[in-house]
Amino acid sequence: MTRVLVTAFEPFGGETVNPSAQAVAGLGVVEGATVTTAVLPVVYGRAWEVLLDAVRTHDPELVICVGQAGGRAGVTPERVAVNLDHARADDNAGQRPTEAPIVEDGPVGYFSTLPVGAIVAALDAAGITAAASSTAGHFVCNHVFYRLMHLLATERPGVRGGFVHVPWSAEQVAGRGGDPVSLPLDSIVEALRVVVRTSLVERVPPPP
Ligand code: PCA
């Protein structure tokens, strides 16, 4: 059994739900994995403290962080975390850092060590809209993703990790005008199960 930590986020930006948290809550048992979960606050700094605490407590072999990217049409595994906080909106504690490094003197970026290509292929095969993404933005999701990858690179060799954004859920945007893109929550739950299963069996070679 592989120890897997899957995290999600609280609602933010005026939303009352975050489909990442609803989907992670619905994950259930995944064959071959012992899954533990945590929900992170949408607060720079504090989100990382909660994730770090979960990593230390559960000692996972695989860490998959999940967040909402409203406006994206499908599930988007992220390829790269960038060493930059640059927010266009306040986090849930009213912070809005701009043009700030996440880790002083840290590398510009880290690649995900999840099998991004295989995950997209598996989601396609499952009939779930998906695409690889080359930016997790510069808000709290990218912040957590970068700090996770920095931790794994510097202190936890062999532990794999990455980030997956999910779109708004259809239930979340029901009744809103403008026909916002979304997926049914059931599909987002199934997508996360595919992400975990694929990450268990497919490995990416470390970057040169
Ligand atoms: N999405 C935000 C932060 C929390 C979340 O679910 C982001 O993409 O940064």
Written account of the structure:
With 208 residues, the chain is an alpha/beta fold. It has 6 helices and 7 strands. The strands form 2 sheets. The protein has a 5-stranded mixed sheet with strand order 2-1-3-7-4, sandwiched between helices. β1, α1 (19-25) and β2 form a beta-alpha-beta unit. α1 crosses α6 (185-201), α2 packs parallel to α4 (140-155) and α3 (116-125) packs across α6 (185-201). It is globular. The chain starts with a strand and ends in a 7-residue tail after the last helix. The structure holds pyroglutamic acid (PCA).
Structure keywords:
thiol protease, pyroglutamyl-peptidase activity, Pyroglutamyl-peptidase I, single chain, 5-stranded mixed sheet, alpha/beta, PGP-I_bact-type, 208 residues, two-stranded antiparallel sheet, hydrolase, globular, Aminopeptidase, 6 helices, binds pyroglutamic acid
Provide the residue-averaged pLDDT.
97
* Secondary structure: helix percent: 25-40%
Query: CATH topology, anyone?
Result: Aminopeptidase
Ligands and ions found: pyroglutamic acid
Number of domains: 1
How far the N terminus sits from the C terminus, by CA atoms, comes to 29 Å
The total strand number stands at 7
- Order of SSEs: EHEHEEEEHHEHH
Task: Report the CATH architecture.
Answer: 3-Layer(aba) Sandwich
CATH class annotation = Alpha Beta
CATH superfamily grouping: Peptidase C15, pyroglutamyl peptidase I-like
Shape: globular
Structural class: alpha/beta
Q: Tell me the number of helical segments per DSSP (H or I, 4 or more residues long).
A: 6
Function: Removes 5-oxoproline from various penultimate amino acid residues except L-proline.
Subcellular location: Cytoplasm
Family: Belongs to the peptidase C15 family.
Protein name: Pyroglutamyl-peptidase I
